[in-house]
Amino acid sequence: MSFFISEAHAQSAGAGAPPGGELFQIGFLVLMFGLFYFIAIRPQRKRQKEHAAMVSALGKGDEVVTTSGILGKVTKLDDDYVVVNVADNVELKFQRSSIHAVLPKGTLKAI
């Protein structure tokens, strides 16, 4: 094994690295995290806050669309659930978080 030792040499500290290379790497990582934050994390949080505000502002008589695409009118509200009237004598119970959007009044009659 001793014949490998003569060929293995440790790289000296300043032999091939540009000066300030470590600082550049740290700066690059900070820049990449900042870019990722503004492109992915921030818009997603904004959408989550808007959805939470919309769900908390639901009221009886609102016309809604669920995440599965079912349209209906809110007939009852609970803390965690919403009862939606989708047809005559047909009411479905959904979690509040499954409401995708609130439609303008009169949309169901126009369809």
Automatic annotation (TrEMBL):
InterPro entries: Preprotein_translocase_YajC (IPR003849). GO terms for cellular component: plasma membrane. Its main location: membrane. It is found in: Cell membrane. Keywords: Cell membrane, Membrane, Protein transport, Translocation, Transmembrane, Transmembrane helix, Transport. The keyword ATP-binding does not apply. One of its GO terms (biological process) is protein transport. The chain crosses the membrane at residues 23-41. It holds the Pfam family YajC. It is a single-pass membrane protein. NCBIfam families: yajC. Belongs to the YajC family. PANTHER family: SEC TRANSLOCON ACCESSORY COMPLEX SUBUNIT YAJC. This is Sec translocon accessory complex subunit YajC.
